[in-house]
């Protein structure tokens, strides 16, 4: 597993946050569909790697699989940045470059690491307490349930800019609406 740690670490802690930042740039410009599509690129990249390897009947070791995931994630990151520079208004690209500076990226990667550790600790506990088969079933179930929650998260994200706009209004009626 040691040979898989570095490629997966680069993919998940550096490239996925960069792709998310590009998705948020689209959302900031009220292009929610494209923002959601951009943010789904990491899952699509992982799925494509798994599907191609299964289709070929190849049985790579974990290190080779991790390297393929890293390459697919790098391609997804480049695609996301190219789409942002082509489709967003011009000020978005300098802002995007400012967001992708090491300061912001390291902080975002750190928060992503903390969030992912909390999300994966339960799977480690299940593996320690039961078998690998049970852990696989548990892991698949949690991911399927998370997929069912995606539409609700998208709904909340699509309305968040309205809440921020209303929150900046100074009238007492606006704050009453937000409190309800």
Write up what this structure looks like:
- This protein is mainly α.
- It contains eight helices and no strands.
- The chain has helices at residues 2-28, 32-39, 41-56, 62-87, 92-99, 102-129, 132-168, 172-179.
- Helix 1 (2-28) packs antiparallel against helix 2 (32-39), helix 1 (2-28) packs parallel to helix 4 and helix 3 crosses helix 4.
- The longest helix is centred in the last third of the chain and has 37 residues, at 132-168.
- The chain is globular, with a radius of gyration of 19 Å.
- It starts with a helix and ends with a helix.
- The mean pLDDT is 75.
Note the total helix count.
8
Helices and strands, in order, run as: HHHHHHHH
Query: What fraction of residues sit in β-strands?
Result: under 5%
Give the terminus-to-terminus CA distance. 50 Å
Largest sheet: none
Spatial extent as radius of gyration: 19 Å
According to DSSP, the number of beta strands is 0
Oligomer: single chain
Low-confidence stretches: none
- Gross geometry: globular
Give the helix proportion (percent range).
Answer: over 70%
Class by helix and strand content? Answer: mainly alpha
> Quick check: average pLDDT?
75
